[in-house]
Specification:
about 325 residues; alpha+beta; Thrombin, subunit H; six-stranded antiparallel beta sheet; 12 strands; about 20% strand
Length: about 325
């Protein structure tokens, strides 16, 4: 009984302390927060050192705890990459098989073309001489579109030569200096390129209008041209060789047909000048045809004035 009474008396004494602690716990924490704020204002250096010491002490623990997490993430990435690599291998196998079929078909067509050309006594065109130049300036503006390249007459560049970049036509050489040349882009207002629509065989003129999308002129109204059809140079007129890719049809309506150039002309950094040996219709400026020259002034034979006091002989 004595022990029981003692335990009851101790518990009874502890109840008031617990009640008071619950009542003033919030106030105590609030006071501690204000104290820490005042301490951070008054002793900034001491608080910084304490925080640094705590961080230094907890960093190894955090490092050890993060190792299993990193190991789990690495294992998950390894499993994911395994499935990704497997799917990529399957896709590459299908692509290789498809390319192999295309290669075999291309070889058969090459043999067939060679046989047909031999039967027709076909004379292939000569390979062009090419010069690669760097675009040093964009001399275009609101009224004309052109580029300046660092190759000129000393590099065998001539007016009228075709200029390509990344497999597509850029324009033609318009002016030639000793070490530089100006390239007239196919989007320029003065650009006219004889072309052909590959899918329909329609012969057209690619006309620049100072917009990013040149138009097709002289196209038959009933032509089945549609968006996505390729447009190539036709070789007519002797300005460009046939077969150079100009672009694809971007819009085909009754009002107009526009094309999207294959090469983004605003991003051309290197240009390749092709010399096919065709002089075309662009002679040097100093060689003006005789029929265009000004006609000479008529010459009048001088007439001797009559002599006073004499009569003409009968």
């Amino acid at each position: 009984m004595a022990k029981r009474n003692a335990s009851i008396s101790v518990a009874g004494l502890a109840v008031p302390f617990r009640v008071w602690g619950q009542r003033f716990a919030f106030l105590g924490l609030l006071a501690l927060a204000f104290a820490l704020m005042l301490l951070s204002k008054a002793e900034t250096g001491a608080l910084e050192r304490a925080r640094t010491a705590i961080v230094d002490a907890t960093t190894p623990v955090l490092d050890v705890m993060s190792r299993p997490v990193e190991a789990g993430q690495s294992a998950a990435q390894s499993v994911e990459s395994f499935f990704v690599v497997r799917a990529e291998n399957d896709r590459l196998r299908e692509e290789n098989a498809r390319l192999l079929r295309w290669m075999l078909m291309a070889q058969q067509l090459e043999v067939e073309n060679a046989t047909l050309r031999a039967q027709l006594d076909f004379i292939p065109g000569s390979a062009p001489r090419a010069i690669t130049a760097r675009v040093v300036a964009d001399t275009g503006g609101a009224f004309f579109h052109s580029l300046l390249i660092n190759a000129g007459a000393r590099h065998f560049v001539q007016r009228g030569q075709a200029v390509v970049s990344h497999g597509g036509l850029v324009g033609r050489v318009a002016e030639v200096g000793d070490r530089s040349a100006r390239v007239l882009l196919l989007t320029d207002l003065n650009s006219r390129i004889p072309a052909i629509v590959e899918s329909t065989g329609d012969r057209v003129i690619v006309t620049g209008d100072n917009t990013p999308w040149p138009t097709l002129t002289y196209l038959a109204s009933n032509s089945p041209v549609s968006a996505g059809d390729r447009v190539l140079t036709s070789g007519h007129g002797g300005v460009f060789p046939p077969g150079l890719v100009i672009g694809v049809v971007a819009e085909a309506s009754e009002a107009r047909v526009t094309i999207q150039p294959t090469v983004p002309l605003s991003q051309v950094s290197e240009a390749r000048v092709l010399d096919y040996g065709v002089n075309g219709i662009l002679p040097p400026p100093e060689q003006v045809p005789a029929r265009l020259a000004a006609p000479p002034a008529p010459t009048v034979a001088p007439v001797a004035p009559p002599t006073v006091g004499t009569e003409p002989a009968q």
